[in-house]
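Just scan this pair:

***
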Amino acid sequence: MLLLFFILSLALSGVTLLSRNRGLTRVFVLAFSALLIAFTVHAWINRGNTEFIWFTYDSTAVLLLSVLTLLSVPTIYHGFIYTRDDTLKRYNIYHSGLIALMTFMAGAYLANTMTVMWIFVEATTLAVAVLIYHDRTEMSLEATWKYVFVCSTGIAVAYLGILFLGFIYGRGDAPNLSFSSFSHLIGNANPLYLKIAFLFVVVGFSTKMGLFPMHTVTIDAHSVAPPPVSALISTTLMNVGFLAIYRVYTLFSGTPILPFMNNVLILAGVFSLLIAAGYMLKAKHLKRMLAYSSLENMGLVAIALGVGGYGYYAALLIIVLHSLAKSSMFYQMGQFSRVLHTFRLDESGRYMKLYPAGAMVLMTGMICILAIPPSGMFISEIMILRAMVVNGQWLVMALTVILLCCIIYAMSTRIMHVSFSSPRQESELPQPGMVSPVETVSQFILLALVIMICFWQPPFLVDLISNGISSLPR
């Protein structure tokens, strides 16, 4: 089934690119969506099994694959709407790239070998570059080249860390060692080598996770990419970067460098919150503000891993809930731009009057992203603070709370402005567009799931997260 999934997915991507008819293109894309759903069902049935040596359906992989599959349907739906006025060539390139990106992300989630994961992560860079450049503007061209160059450099740095680790043991097949194989060899390694390898991995894969210090590349990509693509970049693609770091963190968690890794992650997380708060307080572009919000949430995930204990569960819970909430807000950005013809805050306003359904999505999404009850993210942030109290990390807790307060103020004032206030440059605005409220249904469904988690966590979700963190120290 795994081989069939990859063959059919790449074939569908190819025929989509060569399609001579929009209707046929839509059929191919919907066929891929059905294939991805069937593959996810297969992954659930075969949890814990390994296929072709290089892929394992472990709990964390299945969890993130399920999130990707859930978001694939609204992403495809909103992509159809966003590209409906494009030429046939651009229409086909967009959907071919989208199929390829989702396929490569699925492969990265399931990879249990360092080399294979690296290959799929690099492949996502090439696929998403095509999508970032979709609008063919000067800014999108700049963001695309920056994304390709910085991500490729970062991933190369990460792989240097992986190779450095492998060659410590003098293994000729070091690049092909699986995570489980490494786990049997780590115990006798020199801690200095492990620290160097971990630093390389964190710095390298932070380009994908959108975490400090290599966060800038994802910010620019969010700002210019089509909204449905931004939804994937800020959620499922960031999850790829998280998983790469998480795999190595789990691998090294039984060694003496665990305190060092925790300190690195906490430091990266706090700096991510600091940068997000600073830029959100002066944000003038709505999509860019949401991009910095993603940086904030990835910072929280890093801090959660670093504090340990309850934080482990909270980290994976944030990953899931952030994916649902942030994607819904980026989907809404596509409708926002069709109504107000801009993403600039000074040119935006009275959205509640012009498009009430869209404004309600923004307001609800804001509550969910900022972890304000009844958002499920409130539970995860409480768990992080609880872990800090248990560990006596009062300084980290104080810094985190202060920076989160700044972020709450920055986002809430801007969402309130575009929803209720008049534009600051009203005389220069074009006539508002019209959008059907039906387009918001998928966004309300995703946000409803985030709210539901605040009151009830499905047993399968608890089981997947608990199994995913079972090997971490308590």
Notes: The chain has a mean pLDDT of 88.
